[in-house]
Amino acid sequence: MSDTPTPLLGDDFAAGIALERIAEGAMLLGHAHGEALLLSRHGGQLFAVGATCTHYGGPLAEGLVVGDTVRCPWHHAAFSLRTGEALRAPALGGVGCWQVEERGGKAYVTGKRMAGPTSHAAKAGAPESIVIVGGGTAGQAAAETLRREGYAGPVTLLSSDTHLPCDRPNLSKNFLAG
User: Fold this and answer.
1) Last residue of some domain: 70, 89, 112?
2) How far apart are CA 115 and CA 85, in angstroms?
């Protein structure tokens, strides 16, 4: 839902950043190749993902790193540091995921990671068709996940709603914001 570009702040990760600046479980805001990124260390591994939530453009650098996820401070959407995949609503789309290389005591973001191959072949034991009851955002996310995971059969969403799913965080009376 957000197409607003994030300003390029912080270090240029393509030029390299000293490894000792990247603490375990923390994140740094910077940029590489013209995009705002977060660099984080989890379990000794380095990860780089897009710095802007795909829901409303929330600044992920102001969120939390929890395990191998980053959570948006605005509505608590969660994204995988490993893949950039959206793991929790209200985000429906993932953030970019980038290659990180370590050499000479520095970390370098070298380029965008390509999404892994998804097999669209019918899997043994997969149902012929799927019906999702409820056409809200969760139903839409379920249908999108089925496609992303390779399900190629018919998907039917049943709903009494006359419109596309509404953006419920706007209806929550700022519950998460306090």
Assistant:
1) 112
2) 10
Q: Is residue 95 part of a domain?
A: yes
pLDDT at 157 over 90: no
Over the stretch 86-114, which tens digit does the pLDDT of each residue have? 998 888 789 999 999 999 999 999 999 87
Q: Is the pLDDT assigned to residue 167 strictly greater than 70?
A: no
pTM: 0.73
Structural domain for 57, as ranges:
11-112
Instruction: Assess whether 100 and 143 both reside in one domain.
Output: no
The CA-CA-CA angle for residues 49, 174, 135, to 5°, reads 75
Cβ 51 vs Cβ 36: under 8 Å: yes
Both 102 and 147 in one domain: the answer is: no
Within a 10 A sphere around the Cβ of 60, how many other Cβ atoms? 28
Q: Roughly how many angstroms between the first and final C-alpha of the chain, as a whole number?
A: 23
* % of residues, the chain, pLDDT over 70: 83
To 5 degrees, how large is the angle CA 38–CA 42–CA 45?
90
